[in-house]
Amino acid sequence: MHRRTLVKSAAALGLAGGLGSLGFNAFAAGRIKPGAKAALIVVDVQNCFLDGGTLAVKGGNEVIAVINALAPAFENIVVTQDWHTAGHASFASTYSGKKPFETTKLSYGTQVLWPDHCVQGTDDAALGKDLKVPTAQLVIRKGFHKDMDSYSAFEEADHKTATGLAGYLKARGIKTVFVTGLATDFCVAWTAMDARKAGFEAYVIEDATRGIDLNGSLAAAWKQMQAKGVKRIQSADIQAA
C-alpha cells in the first residue's frame, strides 16, 4: 500500500476496534538488552509536534521522559527532524482552496496536506528542549525538498531518494533498530517499515510514541507494521542500562 493512501484506506480496512487484537509479540519486562548492534531512532521530537506547536500531537510531550529514560541503554542513537521549506508541497496553505488534512495528488501519489509546520530554522522546528539524548551521533533532516514530503528516516516519498541512514547504520554493524517519537501512524511507522525493507530487525516502542490518528490511521499503521514484520514493545521490555 502506498504510504499516502493510508488515511483514505483506514476506514475501508475496518480497523476501528483498537490495537489489542493485532496480535503483536509480547515480551517480558526487561527481557531485551540492546547491544552494540542496536540503535535507538528518535523521530521528530520537535516543538512543532509538541504542546503549543503548529502540528501538535496529542500527548506528544509524554514521550520525552520515556525516551530520556531509554537513551542510556543504547550505544547508538539517531535523531530525526522534519525540516520543511516555506511553501512546502505538503502544506495546505500552498494550494488555493485547500484545508489541512485534505489531500492532493503529487508526482509520487496522494499527499496529505498539513498545517505549516517545522519550517527550517524556526524555533518550531527545533528539538524539544527537554529531550536528553546527549550520546546521539547523527541527526537526519527530512522533508527539506520543497516538492516532496518524507515521513521515513530512510527514504523520501518517491521511494527512490535515500537519506543515507541505512548505509550509516550498516557501516556500523547495526542489525536492529528501536523506533520512538512522533507520530506513530506517520513518521514512526514509515521509518520502522523502511527499516525492515532495508534489512533491519525493527521494533516500535509503543509508549515512547504518540499518534495523530486521522480517520483510523493509527490502527491502520499498526496493522501495516505487523504485516511488514515490525514488532511492538513497551519501554519496560528494554533492560535498563
Automatic annotation (TrEMBL):
<dbReference type="InterPro" id="IPR052347">
    <property type="entry name" value="Isochorismatase_Nicotinamidase"/>
</dbReference>
<feature type="signal peptide">
    <location>
        <begin position="1"/>
        <end position="28"/>
    </location>
</feature>
<keyword id="KW-0378">Hydrolase</keyword>
<keyword id="KW-0662">Pyridine nucleotide biosynthesis</keyword>
<dbReference type="GO" id="GO:0046872">
    <property type="term" value="F:metal ion binding"/>
</dbReference>
<feature type="domain" description="Isochorismatase-like">
    <location>
        <begin position="38"/>
        <end position="235"/>
    </location>
</feature>
<protein>
    <recommendedName>
        <fullName>Nicotinamidase</fullName>
        <ecNumber>3.5.1.19</ecNumber>
    </recommendedName>
</protein>
<keyword id="KW-0732">Signal</keyword>
<dbReference type="InterPro" id="IPR000868">
    <property type="entry name" value="Isochorismatase-like_dom"/>
</dbReference>
<dbReference type="InterPro" id="IPR036380">
    <property type="entry name" value="Isochorismatase-like_sf"/>
</dbReference>
<dbReference type="Pfam" id="PF00857">
    <property type="entry name" value="Isochorismatase"/>
</dbReference>
<comment type="similarity">
    <text>Belongs to the isochorismatase family.</text>
</comment>
<keyword id="KW-0479">Metal-binding</keyword>
<dbReference type="GO" id="GO:0008936">
    <property type="term" value="F:nicotinamidase activity"/>
</dbReference>
<comment type="pathway">
    <text>Cofactor biosynthesis; nicotinate biosynthesis; nicotinate from nicotinamide: step 1/1.</text>
</comment>
<dbReference type="GO" id="GO:0019363">
    <property type="term" value="P:pyridine nucleotide biosynthetic process"/>
</dbReference>
